[in-house]
Write a structure and sequence with these properties.
The chain is of the alpha+beta class. It has one domain: Nuclear Transport Factor 2, Chain: A. The protein has three helices and four strands. The protein has a four-stranded antiparallel sheet with strand order 1-2-3-4. Strand 3 and strand 4 form a beta hairpin. Helix 2 packs parallel to helix 3. It starts with a helix and ends with a helix.
């Protein structure tokens, strides 16, 4: 009986560690995919396998707002006016983006996870900072938000940035 109990405990530990490693690998893959491309949300169709439903909704809303504003401007007295658009690096704190990144730490708590991502921007100032990527498990790990470093910018996180910029169109 004692051997059976020990075997069950060993199997439980092995399976638990395996799932954690699998989850961390999936999270790392998703983050790497987003940050290796440094693409704007306007450059291509947004990949729904990378982002949560809520974040997808906000990004798609931003794209739609920009398209509507471009159409409004095209038909206005001022066709060279600049539309409402999300500028600069979308998924990192520094407007100018980054020249390199590294996932520092991944912490999983149930269906939520966060990863600390360290960035560098090679420039005369050699900027460096860390942002926190929040993920949720929606039939697979997906990025739900990015908490920006308070070192740069006026937005606390990606969701706030998407909401505030899109609301400029409404005003």
């Amino acid at each position: 009986m004692k051997k059976l109990l020990l075997a069950m405990v060993a199997i439980f530990i092995f399976v638990s560690c395996g799932n954690s490693t699998t989850d961390k690998n999936e999270i790392t893959e998703k983050i790497n995919t987003v940050y290796e491309n440094q693409a704007s949300i306007y450059d291509r169709t947004i990949d729904s396998s990378l982002f949560s439903e809520d974040l997808m909704r906000l990004m798609n809303r931003m794209v739609t707002v920009t398209q509507l504003d471009e159409e409004r401007i095209k038909n206005s007295e001022y066709p060279t006016e600049k539309p409402v658009v999300l500028e600069g690096s979308v998924f990192s704190s520094l407007y100018d983006g980054y020249t390199s990144f590294e996932i520092n730490k991944v912490k999983i708590d149930g269906d939520k996870a966060e990863a600390i991502v360290d960035f560098k921007f090679e420039s005369p100032n050699n900027e460096s900072w860390s942002d926190t990527v929040e993920l949720i498990n929606e039939n697979g790990w997906k990025i739900d938000n990015v908490i920006f470093s308070d070192k740069y910018g006026s937005y606390t996180d990606l969701k706030q940035k998407l909401t505030v910029v899109a609301e400029e169109f409404v005003e």
